[in-house]
Design goal:
The chain is mainly β. It is 12% helix and 35% strand. It contains 6 helices and 18 strands. Strands 12, 14, 15, 16 and 18 form a 5-stranded antiparallel β-sheet that branches. The protein is elongated.
Length: 305
């Protein structure tokens, strides 16, 4: 195989709308693959992995969000995710800290530049590249098979063929708790994370801390959450023993295939005042379930990178 390789850090994004310009000063390399392809079998050579933004821009147009006024959020407090190294990520797991401290570790407060908030959404979209590659990118220039050379044309800037998976939706239901001492709500992130199919259904337990009087699950995305069982664990302040209680909600008493279902914009709220002692320690939330992602037809059929 004769090819050109645009070598890059495996964690770095590269704008790739003008793909061929990456290889202008790159020399051709040769690598022997040394394989046999039996009849009716195929050789598949991945040359690029990355992200495609066209599907998001298309959705903004279809949802008629172009008239959104950025000035509305200029005065608001906005938090964005930090890039965490592996060591800090391990320390930042939500079950290791209270909600507030967890949010401080994984995010940072930002302010919008005045030039940005005075710009229209449509103008901003024009500045966003359509495609980003992650890590290195390869162009196969030719294949030599049994001594015969077969030239391979470079991919177009708009590829004719690609494989894609859409990840914009399916972030699982959101878990929030109300602290009766601080008198505020804290968002702890998502529950049953990554369990987007019934085959992935399993138990998960989340540390909530103390002084928690209300637990709330919110399904904010176009997906369906299936809750098979749900319970609250806590340490009795007198006996110092761990106890488990089940809220009086139909279908969540045990794992039996009878599901409590949440659709988009629906929520489940659990009042703990009559379930656990006021001074209960080490409160935990235990849930068994999964969720199903619902995609719009135009997103399901989009052939992006």
């Amino acid at each position: 195989m004769n090819y050109k390789l645009f070598a890059n850090n495996p964690y770095k994004l590269t704008e790739i709308d003008n793909r061929n310009s990456l290889f202008q000063n790159v020399s051709i390399k040769t690598e022997s693959i040394g394989i046999t392809i039996p009849p009716n079998q195929h050789l598949f050579i991945p040359i690029e992995f990355g992200f495609d933004t066209k599907v998001y821009q298309k959705k903004i147009h279809q949802d008629n969000q172009l008239n959104f006024d950025l000035k509305n959020i200029a005065s608001q407090t906005v938090y964005v995710a930090k890039i965490l190294d592996k060591q800090l990520y391990e320390k930042a797991k939500p079950y290791s800290f209270s909600g507030k401290k967890f949010n401080q570790i994984i995010s940072e407060q930002i302010k919008f530049d005045q030039d940005l908030v005075s710009t229209s959404i449509e103008e901003i979209l024009k500045l966003i590249p359509h495609r980003f590659a992650v890590g290195s990118v390869m162009n196969v220039t030719s294949l030599v098979i049994d001594g015969k050379t077969y030239p391979i044309s470079s991919p177009l800037n708009e590829p004719k063929f690609s494989l894609s998976v859409y990840f914009a939706y399916g972030s699982c239901p959101y878990l929030l708790v109300y602290n009766s001492q601080n008198r505020d709500w804290t968002e702890l992130g998502t529950a049953i994370y990554g369990r987007h199919d019934k085959s992935l259904q399993a138990y998960e337990t989340y540390n909530l801390g103390e002084h928690i009087s209300t637990i709330r699950l919110e399904e904010r995305e176009p997906e369906i959450t299936y809750i098979d069982s749900l319970s609250v664990l806590y340490t009795d302040p007198i006996t110092k023993t761990m106890r488990e209680v089940i809220p009086p909600i139909p279908k969540i008493e045990k794992v039996d295939g009878e599901y409590l279902i949440l659709h988009q914009d629906e929520s489940l709220e659990i009042d703990l005042k009559d379930l656990i002692p006021k001074n209960a320690l080490d409160i935990k939330f235990k849930i068994n379930g999964y969720y199903e992602v619902l995609l719009d037809d135009h997103l399901r059929n989009t052939n992006s990178m």
